[in-house]
Design goal:
By secondary structure, the chain is mainly beta. It has a domain at about 25-120: Sandwich (Immunoglobulin-like). The chain has no helices and 10 strands. Strands 1-3-6-5 form a 4-stranded antiparallel beta sheet, with no helix packed on it. A 3-stranded mixed beta sheet has the order 2-10-7, with no helix packed on it. It is rod-shaped and about 130 Å long. The protein starts with about 25 loop residues before the first strand and ends in a 35-residue tail after the last strand.
């Protein structure tokens, strides 16, 4: 019955539709958890569903830099290159993503923070240890053992 009191006639059928209210979640994996001088590593970001607005500004990175963020499967899996800070030793580091800055294909924003596995950085270049110049020589050195010491052959195995 409508507002004027008229009885309805027939049956109205609406089309079926699906409602997507699922928020995207993410995992972060740092491939090499022990980084030393000159190394980089791949970082993989895997979402529960494809996302559209994910970029490097969405990430918090400890003691390094992420570059080359790409996806090859429509936005579900992303990879980036991590380069650690030079001249640093720190055993406890992570990468974090606040998923509220990322949305899925239907506009649902995430509602959690994803944190990577821990990675250690040791990018301190060792000191070059050289003897003082007065100890450097190209002259041959002759060793004359005392006559009372018997000589024994040296065998390397």
């Amino acid at each position: 019955q409508d507002l004027a009191g008229n009885a309805g006639v027939g049956i109205a059928i609406s089309a079926n539709y699906a409602l997507d209210a699922t928020r995207p979640t993410a995992t972060i994996v740092v491939a090499d958890p022990n980084l030393t001088v000159g190394e980089t590593t791949q970082v993989t970001f895997t979402f529960s569903e494809a996302v559209t607005d994910f970029d490097l500004s969405d990430l918090s990175v400890t003691n390094g830099e992420l570059t080359n963020l790409t996806t090859s499967d429509g936005g579900k899996t992303w990879t980036a290159t991590f380069t650690p800070t030079v001249n640093l030793t720190d055993p406890s580091n992570f990468i974090a993503l606040d998923t509220s800055n990322v949305s899925d294909q239907t506009g649902n924003a995430g509602a959690s923070v994803a944190v990577s596995n821990n990675y250690a950085i040791d990018t301190v270049v060792p000191n070059d240890v050289k003897p003082p110049p007065e100890f450097l020589t190209t002259d041959p050195v002759t060793v004359i053992p005392p006559s009372e010491v018997p000589l024994q052959p040296i065998v390397f195995t």
